[in-house]
Amino acid sequence: MRVNFVLSEVAAGLRRNLTMTVAMILTTGISLGLMGTGLLIANMIGDMREIYYDKIQVSIYLADGITDPQRDAIAAQLDSSPEVKDYLYESKADAYARFTQQFQEQPALIANTPQDALPESFRVELVNPQRYPVIAEQFPNGQNGVDEVRDEGDFLDRLFSLLNGARNATIAVAVVQALAALLLISNTIQLAAFNRRNETNIMRLVGASRWYTQLPFILEAALAGLIGALLAIGGLVLTKILFVDKTLAGPIKAGIIPPVDWSAIAAISPVIAAAGVGLAAVAAYVTLRLYVRL
Amino acid sequence: MIELQHVTKVYPSSPRPALDDVSMQIDKGEFVFLIGSSGSGKSTFLRLLLKEDSPTKGVIKVNDKTLNTMSKWQVPKLRRTMGCVFQDFRLLTNKTVAENVAFALEVINKPQRTIKRVVPEVLEMVGLDGKENRLPGELSGGEQQRVAIARAFVNRPLVLLADEPTGNLDPETSQDIMLLLERINRTGTTVVMATHDYHIVDSMRRRVIELNDGILSRDQSRGVYGLGR
Lengths: 294, 229
Ligand SMILES: Nc1ncnc2c1ncn2[C@@H]1O[C@H](COP(=O)(O)OP(=O)(O)OP(=O)(O)O)[C@@H](O)[C@H]1O
Ligand SMILES: [Mg+2]
Hints:
- The complex is a heterodimer.
- Chain A is an alpha+beta fold.
- Chain A has helices at about 5-15, 20-55, 70-80, 90-100, 105-110, 130-140, 150-195, 195-205, 210-245, 250-255, 260-290; strands spanning about 60, 85-90, 120-125, 145-150.
- Chain A contains 11 helices and 4 strands, in the order ααβαβααβαβααααα.
- In chain A, α2 runs antiparallel to α7 (about 150-195), α7 packs across α11 and α9 packs antiparallel against α11 (about 260-290).
- Chain B has 2 domains: about 1-80 and about 155-230, Rossmann fold (3-Layer(aba) Sandwich), CATH 3.40.50.300; about 90-155, no CATH class.
- Chain B contains 7 helices and 10 strands.
- The interface of A and B includes residues 1, 201 and 204 of A.
- Adenosine-5'-triphosphate binds next to α1 of chain B.
């Protein structure tokens, strides 16, 4: 295979359709960027599940007027319950400390919150999280110093369904964009084949192999796909530096949101690159098979 | 060398066959004129030999290979044994004379060494030495057709197919092109040439095959273009 020949054909092809090529690269890039975002959100959801679900499942918020014996009784009941795997007591002071840490970026909010505004609580981990109602029954709301028993898992389920929705929406938009990218690639390749019909006609007549004739077009698309993928990866890196690491720094430090690690971006980058190159090359190949006589 | 057995070609868009039950044989080294009025099926005939299209019925053999059963990936190999020349030259306008000829070898993966050696040889043979670096736009029609012939012949094909190669040229230039084709024929290459040019056919007295609305109506060795001329 004459590498120089193929490469010069590829370069000439990309230059000749500059506007189409740019459009093709940008759409591919946006699609891949969204796909990467979707994958990162999916990663994040996985991390958050670990952070949250493992720690607490049920919170028993205690009433303001609770007495020491009532508190001890609750602790004793938790100790003896076979449903409870582990539990943790959080005093008003602990709750306030956690609150100030979580919202350290918002001093106004902290300033407006009295030190004793947050209730003390028992944070309970169940042997089987599904058995929340049993615990709720054992500690009726408003009795024996219990203010409210809340299934944090329920809240988390809603939080995660929100995050899953965000992930699905991102991926859906990525798929639509990918469709647009594929159509653009197909169009660009048809245009490129039309522009080079004199060359390809001669190649066909002098007996160049199909493969040799098609390769420049496929490489052209693959190269555009690769550039698109690099743009997408660049976009993700910028998003991490400018948005995640800056705007979300507080919640991340507080442990509410898991950080987006460089390793996560490094892990999905090859996936994005492979998807970009692979999809573009396949789209080009199929286009040549279906629409172009070579 | 070339054999057609009861070949019929019907294009989907027209009811009348472009070739109608044509049987014939051309031996190695022959020079054959393919004549007939416009639309009689000459170009179709040549396209079928190149397997640019397939016959509706009948069997076609080229170089002892049956084209009907030939798979797609074998077609390039077939075409490497055939050269073709057209009325409209079909040169790449952005490449020089030498590059146009070299292109035909590059795309079939000939080594650069070979290309460097054979391109000047064939350009000298067609009388274009000294004009290697011109662009097609800087050549006369006759010279452009020489480039096309050089490109068709540079890989030493067994068969040269020419579809009205003199159709765009004046009589004198046409004569020069015919001398060139004769010379190629003398190297042992079979030449099949579709033409309307009765001067040429009459003066060369070679085998003449005439098509009439797709039907082979005459096959005559040392023939002339037509009666009454
Ligand atoms: N691709 C095609 N699709 C449909 N019909 C075609 C096609 N090519 C040729 N034909 C028809 O087939 C018949 C033979 O055409 P062909 O081009 O072989 O004639 P020809 O002898 O080469 O004519 P000319 O001397 O004008 O070049 C004509 O009636 C033409 O209209
Ligand atoms: Mg014709």
